[in-house]
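Course exercise 7: structure representation. Students receive a sequence record and must write out the corresponding structure in token form. The form below is the worked example handed out in class, using Beta-glucosidase 6-phospho-beta-glucosidase (484 residues). Read each field label carefully; the graders check that inputs and outputs are placed in the correct fields and that the protein name is recorded exactly as given.

STUDENT ID: A-19
EXERCISE PROTEIN: Beta-glucosidase 6-phospho-beta-glucosidase
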Amino acid sequence: MYKKTYPKTFPKGFLWGGATAANQVEGAWNIDGKGMSTAEVVQKADDRRQMSMSDVTQETLQVALADTTVERYPKRRGIDFYHHYKEDIALFAEMGFKVYRFSIAWARIFPKGEDQVPNEAGLVFYDHVLAELAKYDIKPLVTLSHYEMPIALTQKYNGWAGRETITAFNRFTETVFNRYKKQVPYWLTFNEINTGTWGFHETGAIDKGLSKKEQLQIRYQALHHQFVASAIATKQLHEIDSTAKIGSMLARMQTYPATPNPKDVRAAQLVDEKNLFFTDVQARGEYPEYMNRFFYENDIVIQMAENDQAILLANPVDFISFSYYMTNVTAHDQVGDGAGNMAVGGRNPYLKESDWGWQIDPVGLRISLNTMWDRYRKPLFIVENGLGALDKLENGQVHDQYRIDYLRQHIEQMKESIKDGVDLLGYTMWGPIDLISFSTSEMSKRYGFIYVDQDDNGEGTLKRIKKDSFEWYKQVIKTNGEQL
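STUDENT ANSWER:
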């Protein structure tokens, strides 16, 4: 007999929490043996609606390497989580976090990327972070590569464009898997791997100034190397710690056709395929057929070693995670991109947008969840979602009802997807504490429940201050999503 029941709310054990990245919070960029990373050679953007993460050339790299200050490179200072981690984790625990997503800075463990011996001081730092999380029974969700590969690998191999980087990465992954086994139940390989099609920030390969054809070749070759490295890391983890799970991570960019015109519908389908291609490889273990035409028409030739395809097929990820901030609109005759610094399509007249031009679409999250569940039938994990805003500290308080409204609307849609039958593991909103912006390296773009007293110039006391949203999220977690 068909059982006509369905889940009514968030499952017991749902993983509520928050997410950060080492290069945006840690600071301490040149102490205790840490090497410089790709994030630390990117200058702060001049325009908050334009990303600066791929604006790296050989010339700007040399300038950055010679500059030992933090003024133009805010990710070098972060919010000094390196010295404030106990205080910050205590605040996360006060909110009731079940999980905390953070990244291990590769250059803190292997300063040159392929050192023969790891930097013990770097390993000890993460020993301490994990011990602090364990004290509060907060599960770690660790990202292995979050836009912060050692810059030495860019200098030597042009980052992931060189196949040698696979070996370097998997020495790093094997090291941390062995060091932290039984302590980390969830791992991610590459953060928002699809943004490698945008260039340097994700691939570590300098290609600015090359033709579009040359850029595409370098970027997709670099991404192939990451696919292989991710599959090898998956195999390593399953052998080293059979109780842990490892996932992929996608910047989910749901797109809608601009009109019912079949040409627009087809154009949107193509854009969506190019977004989901990365998860197709990591979750299914093989390149999808629809990419063959794209590679052919763009004269892209993926160089593969003899056993690459076998490695991919044998080692798919255990679960799928993604970030979700916005949706886009696609037309078959579209000219130019949207005005936001992460926008890759046209504007949607039915949606509001943030100060950074990111269109706010809670229902799009449900659409994305249902689409990905139907496509992959693997557990899903929302590991980034949040609102960057120009918060004001007034009389020692931040009244951020706009953030509460944003998060509430998205969580409501998550609940609807669970009712639809989606297997959703958890939700780590982006930036539970204010941090340095990924896209522009500014401090003014604040996401957190916790205000950090630091401005765009690095001035301030670094004092942590609870916003109104802090108590709200505390109640959300306490009631397992019932009190919104």
